[in-house]
Amino acid sequence: MQITAKLSGPLRKEIEGLQNGEISFQVPEGTMVTGAIEALGLTGKVRMLMLNGKAVLHDTELHDGDRLALLPPSLAFNMYVATGFLAPAVREDIRKKRGEKD
Amino acid sequence: MARMLRVNMDDIITKFEEIPEPYQGLGGRALTSAVVSAEVEPTCNPIGPMNKLVFATGLLGGTNCANSGRISVGAKSPLTGGIKESNSGGMSGAHLGQLDIMGIIVEGQPEAGKWYKLIVKAGSAELEPADDLAGLGNYDTVEKLKEQYGEKVSFATIGQAGGAMLSGASVAFSDREQRPTRHAGRGGMGAVMGSKGLKAIVIDPSEGKRPVLADPEAFKAAAKQFAKYITDHPVTSEGLTNYGTNVLINILNEAGGLPTRNFSVGHFEGAEKVSGETLNEITQKRGGTVAHGCMAGCIIRCSGIYVNEGGKYVSKWPEYETVWAWGPNCGIDDLDVIADLDYMCDDFGIDTIETGCAMAVAMEAGLLEFGDGPGAKKLLAEVGELTPMGRILASGTKAVGQMFGVARVPVVKGQSLPAYDPRAVKGIGVTYATTPMGADHTAGYSVSANILSVGGEVDPLKPHGQSELSRGLQIATAAVDSAGLCLFVAFPVLDYPDALGEVVKMLNARFGLELTGDDVAGLGQKVLEMELDFNQRAGFNKAMDRLPDFFKREPLRPHSEVFDVPDEELDATLQF
Q1: Total domain count for chain B?
Q2: Which terminal CB of chain B, N or C, has fewer other CB atoms within 10 Å?
Q3: Is residue B13 part of a domain?
């Protein structure tokens, strides 16, 4: 199945052949978000993501025609704490920090 | 010893005075709102003699603290009819701090048609005639002032719109290159300055010195650590630095929250062409400047210099809200056109958000087509010429809607909404509805959610939890605005739990206090309470804490969401 990823800022330097910061590529049926990021060679470089414009967990299954937006740490604006688009790993970090602080 | 400067435009006299007891310990927004609240009759006409215009440096202004040179401008707003604090970068905030002047209060009104400039130095403040500057745009005004006062000073000026007392007028503050590119844009503060017959303020810090610190060593240590947090954080050291605030175009577009063609859809097909990534690419290709600080002491440097194909200066990097207002919101997908429009707004002295939204409403009215860049420039040029149409446009979004019979007018309390559609980003919708400022994104968005232990995982598309989130953010923002810090310090403050503590340490070392983090939050709440009280006395009520009804009725594509935070939650947001 085919999915599209829109890369932001410095992530664009990681991959060649982007059109307007986007790349469409094939992944096997049943691929999770994590698998798509891995297929792009961006494991560990994505801090925030959206799937079809909404926050999702990394273990969400992808479907044909899906669109991912991937953001690196330098563009993971705090406003997404407010708007809920933080990558799950970051949410967990914040939870931990709060726990330690509390 | 910190002082206040009173400027009496009835009698054309100035007077330095000790800071009155009720204003002691206040800076920035806390000071402007305290003065307006205590000294301005809430029912007065905003461009009449009873209003007062207040400039204030932040509590950390003039110090070595990074990113502490913001300036606040306050008055009763001609746009909203309520209290207003409008915040700007540029050099003047730090310069006032270096002169140990916490605030300037401009009051009264001179004989109609007379123009003055105020020259502020270490030992003096003089009002001088400025009739030769009347009618000039900000760029020409500053050029003339530079000839006379040299390159070491900063300027606060108004353009044609402020001179004509139009409600969308801004106050321009000069940047490090003495260009009038940084603006207290929101709420018509330029109109109030125009009503005082004050064309320009020249601030000469040459014989000033940095504020006396109660504990210099403690201050130095905290300032160093605070700066390290900013330079360590990827957003404030890389993201904003390389792409500017405009990097948000693609992010909001992907989220379906980028208001397009007068808030009719949340996704713009031309977003990539006007994005932060494209801005960076064009700037590098043409030999412009990436990573430019708008004020001395800025280590984030989220601005840049936009140049044309020949490498000549066009404007500073337009901010995200400016690119959005004139780009997606008007259906324009050309950064060259948007940079020209940004320059024109800076020159005429008008708020880019308000005027871009006004243009989109004019487009909806059929005055020109969405996407018509040359048409937008032609119409905007009328502001500089002060034609009747130009005056309407510079009077704001609501005025254009009223003049041309448009029902879909995105304003709260008469002020236009910024660049986040409240149907897709509901927490910001609550802030738009409830802040005493009128629709304002900076009143409650960027500051970290965990400072005040409010929820950090609120789904932007669900109505629940948004009210608590907005309340916490509004309190924290009021505190940051009072310290004189750039709002973007919030990024490290969120991610490094001790960063806020360094700000508190600096405040204590500056003034010899023993504040805690709770005290800082308490200051934020106190500011909001003063502002809400002023608005209530001005006749504001709960019915004005609502978004325009189309946000409840018209689902926003692509998520097909409406704004559905219940009215009771809006009403509870700022009940302390």
Answers
A1: 3
A2: N
A3: yes
